[in-house]
UniProtKB/TrEMBL annotation:
It is found in: Membrane. It comes from the Eukaryota. GO terms for cellular component: TIM23 mitochondrial import inner membrane translocase complex. This is Mitochondrial import inner membrane translocase subunit TIM23.
Length: 185
């Protein structure tokens, strides 16, 4: 069975024949024009090349929690293995590993998830205020995240954490640009 590619002259849509696999002859009543690009309700949505604030919030919080949980579980695994005592049974060793990795994974996952939540909120606020989404927006969001996350420990700790957060965010933006330029992904 030979298949033919039915493309239209319009590049923004393609022709679709729902019965093409059933050897039904093609006529005009069975062809549909399907769009090849995403459809938006408003034209303003199509001009934006970024996630919405809700998607940002979900993405940063979720990936922060997941990454922190995995890193904390790995750390807890090694501390559980180090806490073995002479004469422990296999059940007791497994219990120590599970308790240690569960506790460390939960606590680190929550901490980094909160950092992601704060970062997403500050970044969305800065983008809404300035109506720009560039590298400086991300650096300001990193600075604000570090400062807010350590604000309870005092002004000096908040300032240091803010500078470290801004530097980390700037390094991430620079690394992302380098990857886009030199790594063909």
């Amino acid at each position: 069975m030979a298949t033919t590619d039915h493309t239209s002259s319009d590049e923004s849509s393609r022709l679709y024949h729902p019965y093409q696999h059933f050897n039904v002859p093609i006529n005009a009543q069975h062809l549909y024009k399907l769009p090849t690009s995403p459809e938006y309700l408003f034209t303003e949505e199509s001009l934006k090349k970024r996630r919405s604030w809700g998607e940002n919030l979900t993405f940063y919080t979720g990936t922060g929690y997941l990454g922190g949980s995995l890193a904390g579980a790995a750390s807890g695994f090694f501390s559980g293995v180090r806490s073995f005592e002479y004469g422990d049974t296999a059940k007791l060793k497994v219990n120590r590993i599970l308790n240690s990795s569960g506790h460390a994974g939960r606590s680190l996952g929550c901490r980094i998830g909160v950092v992601g939540l704060i970062y997403a909120g500050i970044e969305s606020g800065v983008v809404a205020y300035t109506d720009r989404d560039d590298a400086w927006t991300k650096v300001v969001a990193g600075f604000g995240t570090g400062a807010v996350f350590r604000a309870a420990r005092g002004v000096r700790a908040a300032a240091v954490a803010g500078v470290l957060g801004g530097m980390a965010s700037g390094a991430f933006v620079a690394g992302k640009r380098v990857l886009k330029r030199y790594a063909y992904i």
